[in-house]
Amino acid sequence: MLNILKVDHEAQFNDIGAGIVASLLQTRPQAALGLATGSTPVGIYRRLVELYREGSVNFSQARTYNLDEYVGLPADHPQSYRQFMEEHLFRHVNILPHNTYIPSGSENPEAAVTEYDRLLEQAGPLDLQILGLGHNGHIGFNEPANKLHSRTHIVALDDRTREANARFFRSPDEVPTHAITMGIASILHAKQILLMAKGEDKAEIVARALKGPLTTHCPASLLQTHPNVTILVDAKAGRFI
Length: 241
Fold this sequence. Notes:
This protein is an alpha/beta fold. The chain has helices at about 10-25, 40-55, 80-90, 110-125, 160-165, 185-190, 205-210, and strands at about 1-5, 30-35, 65, 70, 100, 130, 155, 180, 195, 230-235. β9, α7 (about 205-210) and β10 (about 230-235) form a beta-alpha-beta unit.
């Protein structure tokens, strides 16, 4: 079931997204959260930090599992997703460092894939998986293809994906060409999914993902098969739905 929430203001977007996470942690303090990076969730993480400082949410028993990580970037690289999470959430709340899991893409990516799949299997179904939406319909770094991987894997990043992420690097040539990502089956295994999108440039792909045919050439369309998906969009991204 798709539950579509369309908002007019950035503050509403962040309040609702953070509220979904906070409500889960209030009822299930030991929840396992699947987290996303990128510009879309930044405001939500900022709001979660505010809620933590207000005493409204507690991360001390929570576990987090990030969707993906670049291949070739050490954990301490400024553009690694480990550093992203530290900057925007982890170092500002009381989550235990050993309960924050992100694939390691720096030394032996193939071994990291095997290890991350083991961790996800050990975790069981994540209580909530947060997702952004790529311009080409990717979720995590599961790019459009004739066939999608079900489990954690190494993926060659689509040119459009690299172009979209180039703004975070000093030059487009510095954007990694590969990443480690959770697979589609791992994502769909979550008990609840929150898909987020903002901006006019996401309107067409939001409509394709939610109303178009199920196809591996738009990986986000497979979310239509999940029983509990919340779609959080601003008015511009949601103008066709």
